[in-house]
Amino acid sequence: MPKPGVQSIVESIAGLGALVMELYQKSRGSEFGLTREQFDGILQEIAAKYLPAEAPQNDVRALCASLRVEELALARACAAGHERAWEVFLTRYREKLYDIAGYIAKESSAARELADSLYADLYGTAEREGQRVSKLASYTGRGSLEGWLRTVMAQEHVNRYRRQRRLVSMDEESEEGAQFATPEAEPVIAVDPRVEAATDEALATLPAEDCFILASYFLDGRTLAEIARTLGVHESTISRKLDKLAKSLRKQILAGLGRRGMSRRQGQEALDVDVRDLRLNIRKRLTQEKPASAFSKKKAEARAGDGPG
Amino acid sequence: MAEISKIVGRRLQAKAKAGMHPDPNLISAFAEKSLGQREHLQVMEHLAQCSDCRDVVSLAIPQGGATTVIAAARGGSGWLSWPVLRWGALAACVIVVGAAVTLRYPKPESAQRSIVARHTDTVAEVKSAVGAQMATKGSGTMANFASPRLPEASSNMAASEAETGRASKQVNVYGIAVPAPRADRAKSPATSAGSVFATATAAKPVEQSAAADSSLSEMADARPSADLTELVPGRAKDALEESQAVKAKAATGDVILPGPEIASAAPQVMSKASLRTTPNLVPRWTLSTDGTLQRSLDSGRSWTTITVSNRTIFRALAASGFDIWVGGSGGALYHSSDAGEHWMRVQPVANGESLTADIIGVEFTDTLHGRLTTSNQETWTTADSGQTWQRP
Predict the structure, then answer these.
(1) Which terminus in chain B has less CB density within 10 A, N or C?
(2) For residue A135, is pLDDT > 80?
(3) Which of B67, B64, B63, B29 lies closest to A103, judged by CA?
(4) What are the start-end ranges of the E strands in chain B?
(5) Is residue A169 very low, low, confident or very high in pLDDT (cuts 50, 70, 90)?
(6) Rounded distance between C-alpha atoms, residue A102 and residue A109, angstroms
(7) H helices present in A106-144, as ranges
(8) How far is it between the farthest Cα atoms of chain B?
């Protein structure tokens, strides 16, 4: 179904006849009953999804050339219910699906449940307007099909976790020795608006990648290795970058506070003598001393399992 | 690891805005580093603000971290990417420093060679004095043993060959380097069949000595030497027996021995002991155009005539360690087991027949096994260092 902006994309793709023909042959879609017209339609849909309506033809060409057309044709043929395509898909990805689920869920029964759930979605148990809707129809070939499956499964796992994390079995946790204390209320301390403004100003100057690193490390509690793996660099690089970022941020905030009328000493006090900071650091130290505390045992195990090999 | 203030963490969190999450296609492509620059930045900006998507990305990356990098989609990567430049610069620095260190400090081997050179200088000076003494005595037999002047010995090439352990194979008239003809030896070459080879070798430039040197041997052999023996009919005898026999003959006056002055001086100067104790001092051998044997102790810069027999025009030689074999006209074959200090004539006899034809090729693959080629196309072989011979 053409979407807004597709018209010009259609024209662009029509002008790329040789490339599209080459891609179609490369995709081997004909083996799965995918016609050239259907393939053109798929490319138009993908181009319309990722490119602006008036995108130059070079961009369309680059996008089409970067697609994993062989896996794209297989996924779309599976979504269309082609039996041969399903045979190929299951041969290639069935085992991988369970491996990925095991890696993400960490526990065999949960992993199997996750994989089966995704398998059902891929096959298309849900129907829309009388037609079976397969999740594979949303694969666009931007990355590998295996990577896409992994991402879809990770999303499903995060959604499940989000749904289930409030449902804690008190009995199970108690049997494991967990003791539930009354949650501490966060002390509401008024922060000097100048500090907030200076902090926002300093954060706004950071590149997206630096923000990602800061958030991953300080907010999500990811390890250096995990962040490094995501960015494809060595963890020592992340370590150095974090040190540099923390120092740079502090310097910038102090400079911002200075511009807002604070003396250097006042600025340092505003940043350092913050009881919540002290509490945060002490908590971090305690966590390092006793990583497997009663309630966080499972989470610590999960974290350990998440870490790089 | 440096900490950030809580206020920074709070503002970082507050900075997060609800927005459209990237679809799994983009996230998987991001994890596989196959997004273009623009889309990569967009996803990164979202990830900087979205904790859930950071979780998904973290889980979507394979455990081994082996993400598929698709270079086609990413601009700016490739040869000039930062890691390549960084490690390339490091490698270049290492190479430059290594080269500087190598050039700045001489190798221990070079130092050893210079010691040998100094030692040889001293030897040459003493030897020169002995040579002069011999000339005045006019003893004749070993007049050429001590050359008037021996230049400094820096047998670098020969030393390196000795280090590589290559055993010498063959040095014959075809491959040997011949020094430029000297005026005092401008006699016409022999008119025998061997003269053809002599002419051929004379035409070869002196620089070919380097190629010929490759067949010179290392000086590891420490066989006992025999004193000068003019003729040993039948077969060559054991060197020790030979030595005793020569001494006995010397007592009766049958054999010409070096004069007592030489005999007494030799151990102090160019004795075989001195040669053997200087492993880098490898003599080079060649045959001149007029068929005389010559030796160089300075990597071929200067050559000294070694008188083996005044009546023989030599056409072929082979050197293997301290063993030198030289053959020439009339089936004359001489052997020295002490790097040319003493010579012994060997008369090859096979099936009751002696070798009388000109020897035009001598080849010894080791100290025991050798082969002679004669001008009448005969081949004589030995497997016991010339004691017995076979003729096919």
Answers:
(1) C
(2) yes
(3) B63
(4) 284-287, 293-296, 304-306, 314-320, 323-328, 333-336, 344-346, 349-350, 353-354, 359-364, 370-374, 379-382
(5) low
(6) 9
(7) 108-123
(8) 120
Residue B236: pLDDT band (50, 70, 90) is very low
* Distance separating alpha carbons of residues B298 and B147, to the nearest angstrom: 13
ipTM for the complex shown? 0.74
Amino acid found at A100: I
For residue A127, what is the enclosing H or E element? Answer: strand A127-128
* Count of helix runs (H) and strand runs (E) in chain A: 16, 2
Neighbouring C-beta atoms of residue A53, cutoff 10 Å = 12
Q: Select the residue of A144, A229, A308 nearest B28 (Cβ to Cβ).
A: A144
Distance (Å) from the C-alpha of residue A56 to the closest C-alpha of chain B? 15
User: Based on the number of CB atoms within 10 Å of its own CB, is A238 exposed (0-12), middle (13-18) or buried (19 or more)?
Assistant: buried
Instruction: Report the C-alpha gap between A122 and A105 in whole angstroms.
Output: 19
Q: What secondary structure letter does DSSP report for B352? A: T
User: Cβ of A143 and B3 within 8 Å?
Assistant: no
Residue B164 has pLDDT above 50, yes or no: no
Q: What is the pLDDT of residue A185?
A: 53
Q: Which residue has the higher pLDDT, B128 or B179?
A: B128
Helix (H) or strand (E) holding A131, with range, is strand A131-132
Residue with tokens 């620059």: B37
Query: Which of A155, A219, A229 is closest, CB to CB, to B56?
Result: A155
B361 beta partners: B373
Decide if A150 and B8 are in contact by the 8 Å CB cutoff: no
Torsion angle of C-alpha atoms A169, A173, A179, A184, degrees rounded to 10: -50
User: Which is nearest to B333 in space by CA: B282, B293, B391?
Assistant: B293
Q: What is the DSSP string of B152-182?
A: ----HHHHHHHHHTPPP----TTT---PPPP
* Residue A55 three-state SS: coil
Token couple for B109: 């081997």
- Confidence check: pLDDT of A279 > 80: no
Joined tokens for residue B364: 């010894």
Asked if B49 lies within 8 A of A232 by C-beta distance, the reply is no
CA quadruple B237, B239, B242, B244: dihedral positive or negative?
negative
% pLDDT > 90, chain B:
2
Cα dihedral value A224, A225, A230, A234, nearest 10: 90
What is the overall mean pLDDT for chain A? Answer: 76
Contact (Cβ atoms closer than 8 angstroms) between residue B328 and residue B374: no
- Model confidence at B324, pLDDT cuts 50, 70, 90, reads confident
Confidence of residue A66 (pLDDT cuts 50, 70, 90): confident
Check pLDDT > 80 for residue B363. Answer: yes
The residues, ordered by sequence, that sit 6+ positions from A102 with a Cβ below 8 Å of its Cβ are A108, A111
Cite the DSSP H helix spans in B73-192.
82-104, 108-137, 156-164
Which chain B residues in 9-48 lie under 8 Å from chain A, judged by CB atoms?
9, 11-13, 15, 23-36, 39, 41, 44-45, 47-48
Please name the amino acid found at residue A136: L
pLDDT-based confidence at residue B96 (cuts at 50, 70, 90)? very high
Of these ranges, A187-201, A229-243, B64-78, B176-190, the one predicted with the greatest mean pLDDT is A229-243
